[in-house]
Specification:
Length: about 450
């Protein structure tokens, strides 16, 4: 990740999801970019729940966010809830009103919509015309007597012309303040929109770098002006490309698309998810990375493409398989035991190359211990072949040489070779026509089970 020239704990980043649904793979991308940035810089990562939406925020989602981040390997240094910081926002509102930067507006949504349509018809940009600034005290009193309640807008300083910043991903950026409406910071019911709590929290918590999706680029000019209005240091911004589905559709917490919880339950390794969520849409090739520190060293934000990145779950299968194939037994032993899988290191060495997810090992352990699907003997020739194979079965115990010794003996007795020799034996022993090398599996199956499976086939 791009980081300051000197590694410093003064680097502070934040991830601020709203607990209104479950995190999906698209949410993992900004969380991971922030975590890796802090990890490389020796900085701090704040998890801050944007839970000011009282109707939609739910504790089950808040708990799931923390659980999902921990599963990815993200362990926040600080945890905050915006719902507990209302006093801080109220104090800033008083300051902004006193400075003339926050003003009351009384237009309804329908009135604003009609106003935008009139502007469009005249070829004008749909920018709020600040009509509310012309209201007198008497005008406001009359509107409130009619039952109207104001929403409050932040008065942008249009005299600066443009707001600029050097984006960590996109390079030099410029926003024309004249093209923006004064943003609404407070709704009619007195609740806060995203912008004000976010900026106040970033200022109060000393956030130095704001790394987020490029769908927030247009918000940055407004937020920089709000930082300046509060007299707060300006953070460095970085806007990375966002993830879409393979078909190009946006991801949504509300639909549960590719939720982190569903990926975890499906048996994916967290580092497979991390590798794809971070490396896709960058100039770095998408390969499985063993741990987060290594991933942090691979990527900096300047390598991120400006085009959307498409997430294909099929790519996740490939990465997951590669990670499992490289794992030593000691790293996986406890998880295999929890799945009820035995066989130790010999079993793991035999089957790991055939796994996409760890839970697939259960299928291969069943192949070892039984029962397996019955092998159907099609004709007398097949029965004669299996009878010869039974006769040639080596005495136990089996070892790594037993499979070759057995097949050499069966080949000599029957004249069969290649697929005609090996496939019927595989089907009898495993009930399948594919799988791990039988030289490694036969010692695990053992002579007693191998003999019983041959007898069962001959009895059909």
């Amino acid at each position: 990740m791009t980081s300051p020239s000197v590694t410093s704990p003064s680097v502070i980043v934040r991830f601020a999801p709203s607990p209104t649904g479950y995190l999906h793979i698209g949410n993992a991308r900004p969380a991971l970019f922030n975590w890796l940035f802090a990890l490389k810089a020796g900085g701090r990562f704040i998890l801050r729940l944007d839970d000011t939406d009282r109707e939609r925020s739910r504790e089950e989602f808040a708990e799931a966010i923390q659980r999902d981040l921990n599963w990815l390997g993200i362990l926040p240094h600080q945890f905050e809830r915006q719902s507990l910081r209302t006093d801080a926002y109220d104090a800033v509102v008083v300051r902004l009103k006193a400075a003339g930067r926050l003003y009351a507006c009384y237009e309804t949504a329908d009135e604003l919509d009609r106003k935008r349509k009139r502007q469009a018809a005249r070829g004008l940009p749909p920018v709020y015309d600040r009509a509310a600034l012309k209201l007198t005290d008497a005008d406001r009193a009359k509107l409130e007597a009619e039952g109207r309640r104001p929403h409050w807008r932040f008065k942008l300083d249009e005299t600066v012309g443009h707001v600029t910043w050097d984006d960590l991903v996109r390079g030099p950026q410029t926003v024309d303040i004249g093209s923006l409406s004064d943003p609404v910071l407070i709704r009619e019911d007195g609740t806060y929109l995203y912008t004000l709590p976010s900026v106040v929290d970033d200022a109060d918590m000393g956030v130095t770098h704001i790394i987020r999706g490029d769908d927030h680029v247009t918000n940055t000019g407004v937020q920089l002006q709000l930082f300046e209005a509060l007299g707060a240091p300006l953070p460095v911004f970085g806007h990375h490309n966002t993830l879409t589905t393979a078909s190009g559709e946006g991801l949504s917490k509300r639909t549960g698309a590719l939720s982190l919880g569903s990926l975890r339950e499906a048996g994916y390794e967290p580092m497979a998810v991390n590798s794809l969520a971070v490396l896709i849409g960058t100039s770095v090739s998408v390969e499985p990375v063993a741990d987060l520190p290594t991933l942090a060293g691979l990527v900096d934000l300047s390598m991120v493409s400006k085009a959307p990145a498409k997430f294909d779950p099929a790519d996740l299968d490939g990465l997951n398989a590669k990670l499992l194939h490289a794992k030593p037994y000691a790293e996986i032993a406890d998880r295999l035991q929890a799945l009820g899988v035995g066989g130790g290191e010999d079993f793991w060495s035999a089957v790991r190359g055939n796994l996409v997810r760890l839970k697939d090992a259960v299928e291969w352990w069943t192949v070892v211990t039984g029962p397996v699907a019955a092998h159907v003997v099609a004709d007398a020739e097949e029965a004669a072949f299996l009878a010869a194979a039974r006769e040639a079965l080596p005495s136990g115990p089996f070892d790594g040489q037993s499979w070759k010794a057995w097949t050499d003996a069966v080949k000599a007795a029957t004249g069969r070779k290649g697929r005609a020799l090996f496939m019927p034996l595989r089907q009898v022993l495993t009930g399948l026509d594919h799988g791990p090398e039988l030289a490694a599996m036969l010692p695990l199956i053992g002579r007693e089970r191998a003999l019983a499976r041959l007898d069962a086939a001959l009895a059909t």
